[in-house]
Write a structure and sequence with these properties.
Four copies of one chain form a homotetramer. With about 375 residues, chain A is α+β, with helices and mostly antiparallel strands. Chain A folds into two domains: about 160 residues, Jelly Rolls; about 130 residues, Jelly Rolls (Sandwich), CATH 2.60.120.10. In chain A, strands 2-21-18-23-16-15 form a six-stranded antiparallel β-sheet. In chain A, a hairpin with a 2-residue loop joins strand 19 and strand 20. Chains in contact: A-B, A-D, B-C, C-D. Chains A and D meet through helix 1, helix 2, strand 1, helix 4 and strand 3 of A and helix 1, helix 2, strand 1, helix 4 and strand 3 of D. Strand 3 of chain B pairs antiparallel with strand 1 of chain C.
């Protein structure tokens, strides 16, 4: 359908008049809908972002080379390398809403404190020895942990060890940038507390199943839990599969266990713009193709398998990341037991009533 | 103020006319407000229920004698002995809204399955060896555990051991009775599953801090967690006091740690009508006098101390229960470290906007 | 089922021991569940309250006689005559939760100001000339209007005319009394503002469809609209029936239009404990039998017909009131176009998750 | 702050290594944060969009010329001319989230039916004679009315008269486009109902103050009211100023009346992404400077005055539109009584917890 063609005038006089009209539109900062509606309002989401896989085997060495060449400190703030969606014209956006990066901190290094409106988390695919200090609360970062830094919390990181450590960061930077919502403030050049406790104060106060401190009865927009530990995630997934073995309802679908990380003050997502989940597939499981409004990023945590993105199968190993743009079909295939961390912009889609999901018929 | 007197007519004729009017009111099932308003609408809550302490040292032996004399089974359903508030005229109500009972199950006994609209929980002050089977899910009952049976869940109990076990039951029976909301259905004469797993399926699915199964994303009126284990409660309270020692905000007030048991699907109370909490006071702590709209029941779990109820101090030992009627001042005094379980009708008061609290000035 | 009988011991020794046990229970303020469970936890709501009809032709003359004999003023506060459910043992309760009364104010009389936790409304079946002053805002009371006095708002009434006026009051007095939630405070002996504006300030600020003042963006527990005017109610019902005539979905069921009065700050009920609705049936309409948890009161506003309460048909004329206790079947039959005001405790039932409805098959 | 400079390596070898690193980043679709953080995460919102005023005296004639030259029909769908923010690089976006356009429909013309995920409204600054048919419900469009077309409602327009009509459209097209949430479907080539009733069925069912049809008790994401009529808006604003004259709290600030259009099912915004308000200033009123996160568009409905945008005063006449990008200071000055319609993306900001407001001290 070419609306413009269809609406083309017949006579040269009309053509000239139309050209003049469009010129006058330009002068007055006006643009006709009728020539643009096909692009602006497609039949279904037509993302410029494309599905893409980043191999950890490429990412980690590049992060390491950065560690050798680029200092970390005030100004640059973080040695974080963003994954740029090939479809998004060179912007450091993994999707229109989400930022994903590998962050690398050398032995004994400190990333200085700052805070910003953007919501952030870190997920640790390997390593340990770094503490992130969130509003003065030192939070250990270890393999399999999800660490939150909701908007406007001061935070800095420091590496206590003689070895470097890398992890992934997830933020809503593209969304915030696009919609002009972000504030930013520098904090301390060094982190405010170099203690290295096993558990943060936030966990000690909040990470007890089904219990809430009486001193914290207000609902908060983001989760007060700074660290979601791997041992809990692993146990929850293990139990789901055991329950399935026992014939009990527990998994999302046969062979597919999954948890959502939530804010204990309301049972909802950990932060207003970002959903975080962890998925475990039994070896041999294939999930049906799914299309969802909104974009997601997965990282393989353990095991191997493949993802079929928009019909194209791509092999996945530990650490590999991939992005699923809006309304692109995705399906997972587990070669071994297959563990994947996932984050997405689903809270945006749900809170604004744009969410839709289509699950393809597995039997076709 | 005596409205009736004040309004009394002057002449004998008027008096006769008034008597006739009141008689006609009676015939037509009418009652004047003006003679009753002082009672019906007091200046502040004027509960008929009175503050009262029940000693565990009296309760337990009576429960044991019941165990010897009264069988448990279909019809009587439960060997539960309700605590009747002395002010409530012989009704088995510990307060206008709440039922509290000691329940006793002999060696190898089974209490048959049934379900009802009334919300119920059990709290275990001592002992172990009983499993309560909630909608087919066997739930171990051990010291310090809170076990939920929200409205309309089938449930029965069985004692696996050669020793009796007793615990307390809390329900909203008076509220349900008064307001005509209750349905009741018999289930199996024996419990449907005599397995004795260490953890119920509900815990395995739900009791992971800050994690929610993807198969359970709907908000539910009551908590899906059947058992809140003592080890978690104890750890949460211990951490609060340690954090206080470290100068961090964590406790309700100096020396007073407390948690609320919550529904992980929304962060709110475990059941629509009943709030459950656990309080720990350091030795020597005295809480300020508090008045609250709505009624509460406390049970001492560990330690010793006293409660001041409406100005009268009463000593408390392990297992003792006391009720605080609406707007009666209460204050706790800890001789040793002092652990108390509490339940109340606060969700009713809050959901219906009747909640009010007054904390007395500690320095008066 | 007679649990007590079933559990009766066999030997005289056992009988004596049991009697002693029960005596000791009494001493310790304990009551066994097993002898009481049938009454306490019935198979379905078994209200002590009974369905009952009060005839306006009886009520109004009695109210008038009260006007001649009983002064209105500080102490008695209101010349309100409560409808006492014949099943509720002489208490001035139309149901376990609700109070309904006819209130009568003579020419030029003033009912003094006071406030209380109890939520109140007035509905005017006939007459005009009284203003109720709610927190200083004079609110005209006219035929067909619903006037709100949510908990803790000062209010008094005054009659501007030379004629008496009567209306009905609805409150949650029994619920408040039973659950000890009520506070009460005297205000001015005379109303604070004797102005007689056509519209209250609350209406001028709030009663515009779909519009909210920017100065009032907080959600409030009760509606900020003091008066719901008959002209709006009548028009809404008229439109529903016209839309039905046009084949559009608009009515609850064929021939049955109905509106709920709502709080514009959240779309929910006007007050936390009381629901108010207005129903209009076309002549000839019969509604299917309905059972609901919770109690309702209806008043006929216009037309004539009948109600079938628990299988018993009773004729209704203008002004007649009837109560439907919990789980009692009710069905309306319209002889003429039939207009009824209804109020109920449904918000209590819904907020506490006790609500259930059963609609009988119309074709049986 | 120039992070890149600061981090520049010292030796030529390092420089070469760094260049190679950045080249390898490019190959792997990676972008360093440290060179981009200043732009990506500014100290406060730094919108590319600029404040801008469009004069109705320019817009309307251009729309009229389009009417003469460009047909309306399937394909182009609408004769809508979008206001393109001069800062947004030629995109037809008035702000990063919002689309605003003038739409023009000639005598007897029909704009065909379609539906889309994008939420839309129309506001009529002058004229009448067009009906918009929303899901089969014909809705009259007249001066001062706000007409809603929430996402996924079929809608088309037709002009009944011999005169053209123009109005403004507001949508969340840029937000939907940017975040890939949109679906689009064609409907009927002609509108499905050419009736021209004075009131739409939606108004007849829903536009009664404080009343809700019992047939519509579910909360809906968008308002069920299709038309918010000028007479109600005008009356609400008039009353606010009268109440202010009487010394009552009613206005936002002295001399500034305002209403928000709301969804009667929950009291919240009319649609999930768009807030709509109407403001009236008394002659002579100046509002304090305000900065808000998120963007707004105003249209002058009546009167004259000025707006100060980011310190620059611009005169405004009837029909003029202006955009306030995120965190740009704005202040209104009323020469005459000054009426302005406003819409914004505030629901997005609030639902995602990005909202912030700063009101400048009026006395500086």
């Amino acid at each position: 359908m070419d609306a413009h063609t269809k609406l083309k005038p017949i006579t040269p006089e009309e053509e000239a008049a139309l050209a003049e009209l469009y010129a006058d539109f330009g002068t007055e900062h006006l643009m006709p809908l009728w020539t643009q509606i096909d692009d602006l309002m497609p039949k279904h989401p037509a993302p410029k972002a494309v599905p893409h896989v980043w191999k950890w085997s490429k990412l980690y060495p590049l992060a390491k080379r950065s560690g050798d060449l680029v200092p970390v400190g005030r100004g640059g703030e973080r040695r974080a390398i963003g994954l740029g969606n090939p479809g998004l014209g060179g912007r450091p956006y993994i999707s229109p809403t989400l930022w994903a990066a590998i962050q690398y901190l050398g032995p004994k290094e400190t990333a200085p404190e700052h805070r910003h409106s953007q919501n952030a988390f870190r997920f640790v695919v390997e390593g340990e020895g770094v503490w992130t200090v969130v509003n003065g609360d030192p939070v250990r970062m270890s393999r399999g942990d999800l660490l939150l830094t909701p908007g406007w919390n001061f935070h800095g990181h420091h590496n206590e060890t003689d070895k470097p450590m890398a992890w992934i960061d997830g933020l809503d930077i593209p969304f915030s940038y696009q919609n002009d919502v972000g504030f930013f403030e520098f904090g301390s050049e060094r982190v405010t507390d170099y203690a290295t406790p096993r558990f943060s104060r936030s966990e000690r106060l909040w990470a007890h199943p089904g219990l809430r401190p009486l001193s914290g009865l207000q609902e908060t927009a983001s989760s007060p839990i700074a660290a979601y530990r791997w041992e809990h995630t692993d146990r929850a997934l293990t139990e789901q599969l055991l329950l399935e073995d026992e014939g009990q309802p527990a998994t999302v679908e046969q062979g597919h266990a999954a948890i959502r990380y939530v804010n204990p003050t309301n049972g909802g997502d950990v932060m207003p713009t970002i959903r975080a989940e962890f998925h475990r597939l039994r070896a041999g499981t294939k999930t049906p193709g799914r299309r969802e409004v909104g974009s997601s990023v997965f990282q393989v945590f353990e095991g191997s398998g493949a993802v079929v993105l928009d019909g194209k199968e791509q092999r996945l190993d530990v650490g590999d990341l991939f992005v699923v743009p809006s309304w692109i079909s995705w399906s997972l295939q587990a070669e071994t037991q297959f563990d994947l961390f996932r984050f997405s912009d689903a809270p945006i889609m749900e809170r604004l009533s744009f969410a839709r999901t289509h699950v393809e018929d597995a039997h076709r």
